[in-house]
Amino acid sequence: MRQSILVAVLLLLTCSLGFATVPWTPEDAARARAAATGAERPAIPPARFYSGDNLADYALAAQFVASMQVSDSLSPDYGGIREGEHLLDIIQTDNTSESIWIFSRYYELTGDPSLLDELAASWEYVLSHPAYNEEGGDDIVAGYYRIYNCGWALRAQMKYLEVFDDSTYASYVGS
Q1: Domain residue ranges of the chain, discontinuous segments joined by +
Q2: What global pTM score does this model have?
Q3: How many angstroms separate the Cα of 126 from the Cα of each of 41, 151, 163, 173?
Q4: Residue spans of the chain under pLDDT 70
């Protein structure tokens, strides 16, 4: 009996390896980057180990988020942040609210104004796509995503207010 269980477990483990996701190599990432569709391609940062410089790594992360932003000012999704490198057509308010926090924190840490245009574009997107209007129902179970989005909207506005001492967007959170 014990031997049968051991054989079954080994068989299951062997089979599961066939369905496991294989880690990407740099060549795989390059192929994915080349295959990205659309006029804009995200600036996928190179795979590397932690550099030891927190600020430099944060700057790279902030620049990556900026590269995921819809930059076509004629698009109804202008300023929104794409869901992922392989989901370029999905733009959501939660990612965009997160970008407001990220860009504000970047400015707070560095004083570098290079991402302020992206920050303004993110605000433009969330003002036209309010967090409380994201998909989901009105009850707490079906509407969890709206609640999650509203939480990010609150965090974004709080960080923006803290960094810039500017209450321009306070009404967004209060709506």
Answers
A1: 2-125
A2: 0.70
A3: 22, 13, 19, 11
A4: 1-2, 6-22, 33, 36-51, 137, 174-175
